[in-house]
Specification:
single chain; mainly beta; 4-stranded mixed sheet
Length: about 150
C-alpha cells in the first residue's frame, strides 16, 4: 500500500468515526422564548442581578410521564417573578424535520425575572403523569424535587 493510499484510508476511517459519534450528540435546542442566563444545576444557589432574565433548565421526558412544575406559592415576587416556561424537544443531527426524535425527551425551561435585591426560594417538582410508557417507577426520589436559593444582588 502506498503512503498516499494509507493516509487516505486513515483519513476516511477517522471521518466515519467522527461522523458516527456526532449523530448521537445533543444539538442545542431551538426554543421560542428568550431563556436569559440558563442554570442547569440539580439544586443549589443562584446569583442574579435586578432586572436580569434567567431560567432553570431540567431534562424532561413526557413520554415517560415526566412533568416538571414550579411548586406553589413560588418565589417571593418582591425579589423574583415567574415569567414563563417552555418545553423544547431534543434534536439530533439526522432529524431534518425539526420535530425531534420520538421518545428522546427534551429540556424544560422555567423562566424568571429578577425584580429587586433580596433572597427567595424556587422549588421544582416532577409529578409524573399517569399512563407513562417509559420507566414504570418514574423519576428516582432524588429527581422528584429540586430546590434553589436565588440571591438577587443589586
Amino acid at each position: 500500500m502506498t503512503r498516499r493510499r494509507l493516509l487516505l484510508t486513515v483519513a476516511g476511517a477517522l471521518t466515519v468515526v467522527v461522523a458516527a459519534g456526532a449523530v448521537g450528540v445533543h444539538l442545542t435546542t431551538r426554543g421560542e422564548l428568550d431563556h436569559g442566563k440558563v442554570f442547569t444545576a440539580a439544586s443549589g444557589e443562584l446569583s442574579v442581578r435586578p432586572g436580569q432574565l434567567f431560567s432553570i433548565e431540567v431534562d424532561e421526558h413526557p413520554s415517560w410521564g415526566d412533568h416538571w412544575t414550579v411548586v406553589t406559592p413560588g418565589p417571593d415576587p418582591a425579589a423574583v417573578r415567574v415569567s414563563d416556561d417552555e418545553y423544547v424537544r431534543n434534536l439530533r443531527l439526522l432529524d431534518k424535520t425539526g420535530l425531534g426524535v420520538l421518545g428522546s425527551g427534551g429540556r424544560h425551561y422555567f423562566v424568571f425575572r429578577a425584580n429587586a435585591a433580596g433572597r427567595t426560594e424556587i422549588s421544582l417538582r416532577n409529578a409524573p403523569a399517569g399512563g407513562a410508557v417509559g420507566p414504570p417507577a418514574g423519576p428516582a426520589p432524588a429527581q422528584a424535587e429540586r430546590h434553589y436559593t436565588v440571591e438577587v444582588r443589586g
